[in-house]
Design a protein that fits this description.
Layout: H1 8-20, H2 22-30, H3 34-59, H4 64-69, H5 71-94
Helix pairs in contact: 1-2, 1-3, 3-5
């Protein structure tokens, strides 16, 4: 567990705790639960990100066929979905 490097969402959660939830941060740190908490948040957020990206792409009919026919359109649509999914993850998991 000591060698685990937290990813993007774990780092965002850590910064949020330090800046806005000082008591919660201190309790997690003192109880030696901070690293486990950050690892769990990071793992859950990444799994949720992948799931939501697939669901939104399917719902919007963004396919590999579109990617091969009109790559710029595909990239634009995928970026829109990515921004929406990231917003959901930040609201549900990081900034709570």
């Amino acid at each position: 567990m000591k060698n685990f490097k937290i990813g993007k969402y774990g780092k965002l959660r850590l910064r949020y705790l330090k800046e806005h939830k000082k008591a919660e941060y201190t309790i997690l740190l003192m109880d030696n639960k901070l690293q486990k908490h950050l690892m769990e948040i990071d793992k859950i957020a990444n799994e949720r990100f992948e799931l939501l990206m697939k669901q939104y792409a399917s719902k919007e009919n963004i396919t590999e066929e579109l990617k091969s026919k009109d790559q710029l359109k595909w990239v634009g649509l995928m970026n829109n979905i990515k921004h929406s999914v990231e917003e959901i993850i930040l609201k549900e998991l990081i900034y709570v």
